[in-house]
Design a protein that fits this description.
Helix content: 25-40%
Largest sheet: 4 strands, mixed
Order of helices and strands: HEEHHHEEHEEH
Strand content: 15-25%
Structural class: alpha+beta
Number of strands: 6
Shape: globular
Radius of gyration: 15 Å
Length: about 150
């Protein structure tokens, strides 16, 4: 799936193969437009990433660059929301609270994180403990990205 021009993922996530730290803009990003090298040179890792907004028929106010949170479905039990580092209260917006409630109702746990906060916000779903959700996310991050 091609980038929809949101570009928040180009800033909030680290990109190790470019030595890009979380919170820095990717050098290939045309901010608000999309990736300048998507068709010719973007890494497979970038092409594999599809945020939850692009996976479902989400409302326009949930577009990551508008709500300042980029959600990704980690597995069949969890969503991770990575917040823009300058908007660590973004999860308090009504639209995001509505989405979190919908995720919880479907049995998902939700973890909200930012590279500028000390501890993630863990909202455990049905019959799960926050500690177990966090340990699961860390294990998956280590497996997928080499860190956790």
């Amino acid at each position: 799936m091609e980038c929809d021009g949101c570009t928040l993922c180009c800033m909030v996530f680290p990109i190790p193969w470019l030595d890009k730290k979380a919170g820095e803009w990717c050098p290939h990003c045309d901010i608000g437009v999309g990736c300048k090298v998507w068709d010719n040179g973007v890494s497979e890792e970038c092409k594999k990433f599809v945020c939850a907004y692009n996976q479902v028929n989400a409302s326009p106010d949930m577009r990551p660059d508008r709500c300042k949170v980029i959600f990704e479905k980690v597995d069949k039990t969890m969503f991770l929301g990575t917040m823009h580092p300058h908007y660590n209260d973004a999860y308090k917006k009504k639209a995001i609270q509505r989405e979190i409630k919908a995720m919880l109702k479907k049995g998902f746990s939700v973890v909200l994180n930012s590279y500028t906060i000390d501890k993630p916000i863990i909202i455990a779903g049905r019959d799960r403990r926050a500690k177990d959700v966090w340990l699961s996310l860390r294990a998956q991050s280590k497996e997928r990205y080499g860190y956790g």
